[in-house]
Amino acid sequence: MKADSPERQRLLIQSMQSTLKKLENAYNNMIGKEANITLIKKRRDAVKIALDSLENAWHGTGFPYEMLDIFEARTVIVGILPSVKKQYQNAKEGSPQKTLLERRIASIEAAIESLDAHIR
């Protein structure tokens, strides 16, 4: 995995943590409404594995996942990337939203790279 500065690593991990928190909140809100939670659960679980993979790559933390879970997480994360890129293209230049999406894209790309390292 390419070397990022400690500051960039921190920002990308924060971005992935933010994404996970949003998915966890969405999941919790949907549970009580008898909504179909399959997709949100799949994304939440994939982002958690991706976050753990980044922390493992950059900080040497544990990574207790089986190959099938890693592969599934990678597939889901790759599937999220196009919609985030589209949101980025539609965001107003210089806006905080554009910066947030830029970091989210970078964190997803870094997570894909770190997940790939576990698959090899």
Secondary-structure blueprint:
Blueprint: H1 6-31, H2 38-59, H3 67-90, H4 96-119
Brief account:
With 120 residues, the protein is mainly alpha-helical. Helix content is 80%, strand content 0%. Helix 1 packs across helix 4 (96-119), helix 2 (38-59) packs across helix 3 (67-90) and helix 3 (67-90) runs antiparallel to helix 4 (96-119).
Task: Note the main attributes of this structure.
80% helix, 4 helices, mainly alpha, 120 residues
Q: Could you describe the 3D structure shown?
A:
By secondary structure, the protein is an all-alpha fold. The chain contains four helices and no strands. The chain has helices spanning 6-31, 38-59, 67-90, 96-119. Helix 1 (6-31) runs antiparallel to helix 2, helix 2 packs across helix 3 (67-90) and helix 2 (38-59) crosses helix 4. The chain starts with 5 loop residues before the first helix and ends with a helix. The model has no long low-confidence stretch (mean pLDDT 93).
